[in-house]
Write a structure and sequence with these properties.
Layout lengths: L1 E5 L4 E5 L1 H7 L12 E7 L2 E3 L1 E6 L2 E6 L1 E6 L2 H9 L4 E5 H10 L3 E2 L5 E2 L4 E4 L8 H15 L7
Parallel strand pairs: 3-7, 3-8
Antiparallel strand pairs: 1-11, 2-8, 2-9, 3-4, 5-6, 5-10
Length: 149
Amino acid sequence: MALPLAPHNRRVLVASPEYLAREGALKSPADLAGRECILWFRNEHIHNAWSFSGAAGQQTIIVHGRYVSNDADVSRRWALAGYGIAYKSWLDVQEEIASGRLVPLLADLRGEKAPLNFICPHRSQFSPVVRQIYTILRDFFATIPPQAE
């Protein structure tokens, strides 16, 4: 059983101000192909096909990079350190964006959906204690400012 915690969460392109000062801003999604991107593993494969939707419709860009991780926090820290452009969950980077330590890129594009759900193997295991944990988490995620649309 899956209960939504952050059903509208999406991925967002981000880079550090230092990276942008050194390499310049993106003008279009196609610019990603020539940039250092921070990649991650998805189902044991490097996820290097980043999809977006916008005024031009749906598009997928194949990206490249020297930095690959299976740890979301590591890729966030690499982006903060200026190693490249990351395609992160809004939930992972919204605090850094608010503080200016990361800058959202191509804000007119909508990134891939990345909903966060509370998973319980079976309804019989959704005890009052587990229900209370879910309520606390749901209420916490409701306090996170939504991503600009």
